[in-house]
Specification:
The chain has 284 residues and is of the alpha/beta class. It is built from nine helices and 13 strands. Helix 5 (175-183) packs across helix 6 (202-215).
């Protein structure tokens, strides 16, 4: 069975041979962009509307906060005063929305290669894309691989909210790209990158962290649950030249942000760097 909608169900089977099935409803948009197949459809479920790219799950209205709160707040709360933030990928806008909950932020740059993702999410997923018109947000529809090459000492935080290491996202998983990202950081800067499912994407994780560890003196991992992602369990890389995990947490910002979050809080933040044995072995 191919991934996609068939007989009123969206099916997705992951590389480990199992997956999800969601009762589907009306297809709101289905198009081939310059880079990929894009679909947004209604569901007869608690998940609400769903965005898929190349028939792979990207986000749902019902569980997106499990991903967006974690990729944004864990690294952001490690920085004493994040003012400039770069989001690579993330055209649905969820990561930008969470970044802008931090009142220290003066500017967030969204660099997304596929402008159709931004346009369609603004139209059909407004609760996720709601901050893309914020005056603090600069949207660049271009290839982040090229954009980042000449950026030096520009960002406090870089969030790599990419698709999987295939298609338009493939070039975001290289040592050269990670080196350019490191060079774009200001002193005390932090990078956070989505790093796939520890249960499903073991080889991808092993390769990715081997590259990251060549570039960053500090490279750690945190995890959380995402119901609709492969294995229901996801990992993110936390990387910096100087900032260690769990070395700082801003009480004032944290208290304010937690009020608007569904998963993120201080206790959860601290617990997410505790890893299961099989993931520790995978990363060594």
């Amino acid at each position: 069975m191919k991934n996609g909608i068939e007989n009123n169900y969206y099916h997705e089977i992951n590389p480990a041979g199992f997956g999800v099935a969601i009762k589907s409803g009306k297809v709101l948009v289905s198009k081939q962009t310059k880079f990929q197949k894009l679909e947004i459809f209604e569901t007869d479920s608690r998940l609400g509307r769903v965005l898929t790219l190349d028939d792979l799950m990207m986000t749902t209205e019902g569980d997106e906060w499990n991903y967006h709160e974690m990729i944004a707040h864990v690294p952001m709360m490690h920085h004493k005063c994040p003012k400039t933030v770069l989001v690579i990928g993330g055209g649905d806008g969820g990561t930008v929305r969470e970044v802008l909950k931090h009142d220290t932020v003066e500017k967030v740059v969204l660099c997304e290669i596929d402008g159709d993702v931004i346009d369609e999410c603004k139209k059909y997923l407004p609760t996720i894309a709601c901050e893309l018109d914020n005056p603090k947000c600069e949207i660049l529809v271009q290839d982040a691989i090229e954009y980042i090459k000449d950026k030096k000492n520009m960002f406090d935080i870089v969030l790599i909210d990419s698709t999987d290491p295939m298609g338009p996202g493939e070039g975001l998983f290289t040592e050269e790209f990670y080196t350019n990202v490191k060079n774009s950081l200001k002193e005390g800067g932090i990078v956070c990158a989505q790093s796939e499912s520890p249960f499903v994407n073991k080889e991808e994780i092993r390769k990715m962290y081997a590259l990251l560890k060549k570039v960053f003196p500090i490279c750690s991992t945190f995890t959380s649950n995402i119901p609709t992602y492969p294995g229901g369990y996801w990992a993110w890389a936390f990387c910096s030249e100087t900032v260690k995990p769990l070395s700082y947490w801003d009480e004032r910002r944290g208290e304010a942000i937690t009020k608007s979050c569904k998963i993120y809080n201080k206790e959860y933040h601290e617990a997410r760097f505790a890893l299961p044995n099989y993931l520790k072995e995978l990363l060594n």
